[in-house]
Amino acid sequence: MIWETIYSHAKEWVKEAGINIRQSFDKTLDIQTKSNQNDLVTNIDKETEQFIISKIKEHYPNHKIMGEEGFGDELASLEGIVWIIDPIDGTMNFVHQQRNFAISIGVYENGVGKIGIVYDVVHDEMYHAFKGRGAYLNNKKMPKLESASISEAIIALNATWVMPNHRIDHHLMIPLVRDARGTRSYGTAALEMVYVAAGRVDAYISLRLSPWDFAGGAVIVEELGGIVTNLRGEKLNYLNKDSLLVAKPGLHKTIIEEYLKNGEW
Question: In the chain, where does DSSP find H-type helix?
C-alpha cells in the first residue's frame, strides 16, 4: 500500500506544482545562469523544486531526494527510496516560449525505477507509470511499443550532434540522420523520452544529461517495452551525467550496432 500512496501523492503534487507554474506566466521571471550563458535557471525552477521537496519531507521524511537545483540531498548511492526531481526540464523553452517544458519525477528503490511522472504543464498531459502496472497518458493506458525500421523512424536529435562539436565525431551521426525518415528537436529530454513512449517519435539521442533529465521518463518508456541505455548500450548511471539512447525495441539494437558502435561516448 505504501507504493500506491507514494504514486498518488506524486501525481497530486506534480499537478499542484503545474498550477503554480501556469499562474506564473504573466509575472516577471528572475532569470539566472548556471554553468554557462545558455544554462538557465529561474525563480520558478527553484520554487517548484522546493515545493515538491517540502511535500516529500512532510510525508516521507526517511526518503532521499536528488534535485536539479540543489535543494535535495548529497547522494553517494541509490540505496533506499530516492526521489529524482527536475522541477522544470526545458528551462530555456519555459523562458522563451512558455511551452515545451515539463516537470519530471522518478522514484527509485535501491536503484530500480518504481514510479515515473513527466507532466507537460501547458498541455496538461501527464505521462505516468508504476512499475508492473502499465503506463498512462492522463487516464488512458498507453499501448506497448512495437519495433520500427530506421527508414520509417523519426529520431529526436539536437542538430549540434551532426555538426562539428567538441564532444563527438559528428560524422558518426550523419548516416543515421540521412537514413531516418526525419528528425525533430524539442529541447527537453523528459518530453522527448515520453514522446518515444507515446509513439510520437521512435528514438531519442542525447550526449550529456543528468539523472533528473531521464529518471522519470526511463520508468515510463521501459514499462512499455522501450529500451533506455547510454550510447554504448549500457545501463544508465543514475548518480552522474551520461549519454542517452531511448528507442523502440529492435530499433535500439539497430542504432547501436549499425550507427553508434564505433563512437567514443
Answer: 2-23, 43-59, 91-96, 174-179, 189-197, 211-223, 251-255
Whether the CA torsion 161, 155, 222, 258 is positive or negative: it is: negative
> Which of 100, 85, 6, 97 minimizes the C-alpha distance to 45?
85
Q: Is 36 exposed, middle or buried (0-12, 13-18, 19+ CB in 10 A)?
A: exposed
Give the pairing of strands 112-120 and 135-137. Answer: unpaired
Inter-CA distances, 147 with 137, 152, 205, 211, Å: 20, 10, 17, 26
Decide: helix, strand or coil at residue 104.
strand
Which pTM does this prediction carry? Answer: 0.94
pLDDT digits (tens, 9 = 90+) for 29-63: 787 877 676 666 789 989 999 999 999 999 999 99
Cβ atoms 211, 67 nearer than 8 A: no
Angle between helices 2-23 and 43-59 (to 10 degrees): 150
Distance of alpha carbon 106 from alpha carbon 119, whole angstroms: 12
